[in-house]
From TrEMBL:
Pfam families (UniProt xref): OsmC (PF02566)
Domain of life: Bacteria
Annotated transmembrane regions: none
InterPro entries: KH_dom-like_a/b, OsmC/Ohr_fam, OsmC/Ohrsf
Protein name: OsmC family protein
PANTHER family from the UniProt entry: PROTEIN YHFA
Record-linked SUPFAM superfamilies: OsmC-like
Organism, scientific name: Paenibacillus tianjinensis
Length: 144
């Protein structure tokens, strides 16, 4: 899967995926942006919540008529030092309806441990590539 992220000026970017949908991102004014879109870290938490939600609703498909509310709150704790990535993410599943708690827990744990590609991807290695003026430039051995 490829997603294209295009600079729109200052700190604003638009990303478009194979689905054809796009999302705008921007930095907060603290980091030189205008705050005209979600931050990338907010989108990461949103992606995790959406992935977990989709998987949970697939697992619980036959019970969906009994669910009147499914809201997922993701609360990420970040490191103080740069890069200030997440050190922990707490997911709060607010569910109303007539479904036994053991079924909900089973669906939540199956989504996290077996099906959610986003939670699995948080463990992924990142391999950067630089294409400068149309030519790929090898990564230096060490950067200073």
């Amino acid at each position: 899967m490829k997603v294209s992220t295009i600079w729109k000026g200052k700190r604003m970017f638009d990303s478009t995926g194979p689905s054809g949908y796009s999302v705008g991102m921007d930095a907060t004014p603290k980091y030189g942006g205008n705050g005209e879109g979600m931050t990338p870290m907010e989108l990461l938490l949103a992606g995790l919540g959406g992935c977990m939600g989709i998987d949970i609703t697939m697992i619980l498909d036959r019970f969906l008529p009994e669910i009147t509310r499914l809201e997922i709150e993701a609360d990420g704790t970040r490191k103080e030092a740069n890069p200030s990535g997440f050190t922990a993410i707490d997911l709060f599943f607010h569910i109303d309806g007539n479904v036994p708690d053991y079924r909900l827990w089973k669906a939540i744990l199956m989504a996290e441990e077996k099906y959610c590609a986003v939670s699995d991807s948080l463990k992924a290695e990142i391999h950067p590539h630089l294409i400068l003026n149309g030519v790929e430039v090898e990564k230096p051995e060490k950067t200073s």
